[in-house]
Q: What sequence folds into this?
C-alpha cells in the first residue's frame, strides 16, 4: 500500500473486554513496531518485529498485551481484559530495514470505559 | 538509558520568521535521528532522517543538523507559514533494531 494503514481508527470498549488492533505496513518493509501515545507519558515503545519474529517485546506493559505478525506483513496487537489505563493512541510504524526511515500509521485511539 | 529532551515545550512565532527547534540526547551512541511532525488527532509524519555519520540533512525549507559529540540535533524551518503549526518530535534510534526513543515534542504555532 501507499502508507502504513491501521484499523480501526477509533475503538471504544468496556473495561474487561478484549480488543484487537490491526496494522498493515508498507509493502516490503521487514521491520514493524508498535508504540503507545498517552497523555503525560509521551510515545513509548511496545514491541518490534523483524519478519514474523519479535526479538524485542520489552515495552509490553503486562501479560495482557500480545502481538503477532503473519506473512511478514500484517500485525495484530491484542489487549486482553482491558483496563482504563490502557486508553491511549496505539501507533504502528514500519521500516524497509531497521536503519532506514520509519513511517507511521494514523493510529488507533482506544478508549476503555 | 537514552533520554531525549526537547526544549521549549511550546513556541509561537509570527509568519515569515525562521523556526529553530532543539533536541538533545544523553547517549551519543545513536544509529540515526529522525524528526517528525504530528498534527492534532493524527499520526506522525516523517520530516527528515539523519544517519549517525551525517552532520546535516535538508529537504525544501527544512534543515536538520546532528552533533553527536554534544548530544544535539536542531531542526530549522525557514520562512515559517501558518501551515507549519504542529507538534514536532525528534526520536533517536539507539539500537540495531531501530527502536525509537522520543522526546516530548515542541508545539509550534505560527501566527498570520
A:
Amino acid at each position: 500500500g501507499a502508507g502504513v494503514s491501521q484499523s480501526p481508527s477509533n475503538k471504544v470498549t468496556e473495561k474487561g473486554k478484549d480488543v484487537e488492533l490491526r496494522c498493515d505496513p508498507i509493502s516490503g518493509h521487514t521491520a514493524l513496531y508498535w508504540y503507545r501515545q498517552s497523555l503525560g507519558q509521551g510515545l513509548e515503545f511496545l514491541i518490534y518485529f523483524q519478519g514474523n519474529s519479535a526479538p524485542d517485546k520489552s515495552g509490553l506493559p503486562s501479560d495482557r498485551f500480545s502481538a503477532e505478525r503473519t506473512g511478514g506483513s500484517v500485525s495484530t496487537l491484542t489487549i486482553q481484559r482491558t483496563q482504563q489505563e490502557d486508553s491511549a493512541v496505539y501507533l504502528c510504524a514500519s521500516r524497509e530495514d531497521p536503519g532506514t526511515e520509519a513511517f507511521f500509521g494514523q493510529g488507533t485511539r482506544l478508549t476503555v470505559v | 538509558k537514552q533520554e531525549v529532551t526537547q526544549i521549549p515545550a511550546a513556541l509561537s512565532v509570527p509568519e515569515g520568521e525562521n523556526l529553530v527547534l532543539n533536541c538533545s540526547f544523553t547517549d551519543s551512541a545513536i544509529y540515526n535521528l529522525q524528526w517528525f511532525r504530528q498534527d492534532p488527532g493524527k499520526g506522525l509524519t516523517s520530516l527528515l532522517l539523519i544517519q549517525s555519520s551525517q552532520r546535516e540533512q535538508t529537504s525544501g525549507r527544512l534543515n536538520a543538523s546532528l552533533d553527536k559529540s554534544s548530544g544535539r540535533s536542531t531542526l530549522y524551518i525557514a520562512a515559517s507559514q501558518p501551515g507549519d503549526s504542529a507538534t514536532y518530535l525528534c526520536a533517536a534510534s539507539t539500537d540495531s533494531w531501530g527502536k525509537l526513543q522520543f522526546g516530548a515534542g515542541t508545539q509550534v504555532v505560527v501566527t498570520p
